[in-house]
Amino acid sequence: MHTKSWIVAWLAAGIASAVLIGCATTPTDVEVSRQAAAVLKDSFKANGQAGMDRLDQDETQRLCTQYANKALPKDVAEMIEKLNLASIKWPADGKWLGDWKNGERVAQEGRGKQFSDDPKGPVGGNCYACHQLSPQEVSFGTIGPSLLAFGKVRGYNDEMRKYAYGKIWNADAYNACSNMPRFGHSQILTEQQVKDLVALLMDPDSPVNK
Amino acid sequence: MADPMRIRANLVGDVTDVKVLMSHQMETGQRKDAQGKVIPAWFIQNVAVTHSGKTVLSAQWGTAISQNPFLAFRFKGAGKGDKVQVTWTDNRGDKRTDEATVA
Amino acid sequence: MKSLTRLHVVCALGAVAVVTAAAAWAQTSAVDEIAKYRAALKDGNPAELWEVRGQGMWAQPRGPKQVSFEKCDLGLGPGVVKGAYAQMPRYFADADRVLDLESRLLWCMVAQQGYTDADARKSPFGAGNERKSDMEALVAYVTSESRGIKMNVALNHPKEQEAYRLGGKMFAFRGGTHDFSCLTCHGDDGKRIRLQDLPNLTTVAGAQLAYTTWPAYRVSQGELRSFQWRLFDCFRQQRFPELLYGSDASIALTMYLARNANGAAFDAPAIKR
After folding, report:
1. Integer angstrom CA distances of residue C196 from A140, A164, C30, C34, C35
2. Which residue of B27, B39, B68 is in closest CB contact with C46?
3. Which of C52, C131, C219, C221 is the best mutation test for B, with the most CBs of B within 10 A?
4. Which residues of C are catalytic?
5. By mean pLDDT, which of B16-20, C20-24, C69-73, C223-227 is the weakest?
6. Which of A5, A34, A89, C228 has its CA 20 to 30 A from that of A207?
7. Least CA distance to C55: which residue of chain B?
8. Pairwise CA distance, residues A196 & A124, whole Å
9. DSSP B90
């Protein structure tokens, strides 16, 4: 009986000291994040159009990094979506649809914003890297959902056109910490290019809807 | 100077299986550099393989052959320990000879 | 009326299914063809040309001090190459730092061979006719001597543990114009970018498959590419600034991936599209 309780006591002490050591040597998640950000700053150099400011995270990037490996709490997700929705610049002329032919070009174009790209050269959305769009293009990625028959399935109405515009402009406004870049918000694409992409998705004549 | 070739020669039955990797740019003369200037053609033109002083393979190559070409072929008549010698000559007159022992 | 509408919906769905099936077939066959292409190339992998060149360099006296890499300790003793890469990155007491293969070679070039740091890192990546990289050849040779050996990266030293922790965090770091992190492309199973399959590097199987097949001869570039190059070029496409060669971030990320690949047999230099 005695021996047994001794063992229990020793075990408890062992666990307690293990926890203590753990506390002393393992930094918290926040500390590791801070250290990682600092080490990253020392590990890159500006090259052409890609300056060191690209490592400065905005609130959305910071929160999405923080919650990358765990479930995003509902209130944080709502906060991110609200923040990003409020920043969307809607078209001044109230028109949603541009030219789908140009939209197809924007969707195919993978260049832009890399330090290896000509700053005066073309900048595209590279949509096919992640999405299926026009059925003729079989070389598409699967990181995002298929957008085949996007307008045809969802209906050719203003609500959908507005959604498509907003989603391309700032994906985090509808889905916090989306994998999709915020094309308008981050000044990757122009308003006209976003409209052209909306046309690719929403014009009944677009191959996406054929 | 050109980098050495990588040659393997293995006897399987009475047939020697030869595999050669050559280090060469094999520029087609069709490409342009960043300034838009044509990059001059530069490619291996002749390949000769000999065994005991006898030619076992002779080839004329052009610009359709890939960069860092790989050549595989078989011939009869060699024994273990024999030398197989490979020589290439390119259109600039550069030349490289390497040899391998049949294993 | 009601049943008619329903019939229409069914027909529309059927049509979409047929189109998707056709696209899926076109893709599966394209992916299969790429796999066949890789298999066909495997026999005559030009990476061997880099291995031979690197092997020749290894024993040569180099630098102002004319010292060969046979004095360079990759963790298993001076000049021991066999199996060394399968246990890297690791902590090196003489440098008091965790180093991957390439930063270790830089260290040996500076500390033992007498190069200046700038000279040592002059040509990390080859560029066809214009520039051949000694470093890529050395990497090809050293890594080839771990072929078939199981990855066995330790987390014994506190700095090794720190590097692994930081690497994991960096893997999730979102930044740049496009909000990309490593996870964007490498955090899920069964994804593709265009037609290129993407390994899920957060799983053991994904990390093993990817890490054990670098370095690789890239047919599209006619160059042998090291793991430092792999990271450098990922960040370029992430729209980040330029990753510094042998930087702490590059080593931490390598540590994270190499450690996650533990247990799998190393199988490189490989050949890739």
Report:
1. 9, 27, 10, 9, 11
2. B68
3. C52
4. 234
5. C20-24
6. A89
7. B4
8. 11
9. E
Span C129-165, pLDDT tens digits: 667 899 999 999 999 999 999 999 999 999 999 999 9
Asked whether at least 3 C-beta pairs link C and B within 8 Å, the reply is yes
For chain A, what's the residue count?
A: 210
| 8 Å CB contact of A32 and C169 | yes
- The tokens of C161 are what? 């543990």
**Do A54 and C250 count as a contact with CB atoms less than 8 A apart?**
no
The two tokens of residue A112 are 């832009």
Are C247 and A44 an interchain contact pair (Cβ–Cβ within 8 Å)? yes
Q: Which pair of tokens denotes residue C141? A: 């040779």
Task: Give the amino acid at C126.
Answer: G
Residue C165 in tokens: 């922790």
Three-state SS at B99: strand
Q: ∠ CA C61-C65-C69 to the nearest 5 degrees?
A: 40
pLDDT digits 0-9 by tens, A115-169:
999 999 999 999 999 999 999 999 999 999 999 999 999 999 999 999 999 999 9
Cβ within 8 Å of residue B50, ≥6 positions away: B56, B84, B85, B87
DSSP string, C136-201: HHHHHHHHHTTTTPBP-----SHHHHHHHHHHHHHHT--BTTTTB-HHHHHSSTTEEETTEEE--T
What CA–CA distances, in Å, run from C222 to B80, C129, C245?
34, 10, 21
Q: Report how far residue C88's alpha carbon sits from residue C163's, in angstroms, rounded to the nearest whole number.
A: 12
A33 with C170: CB under 8 angstroms? no
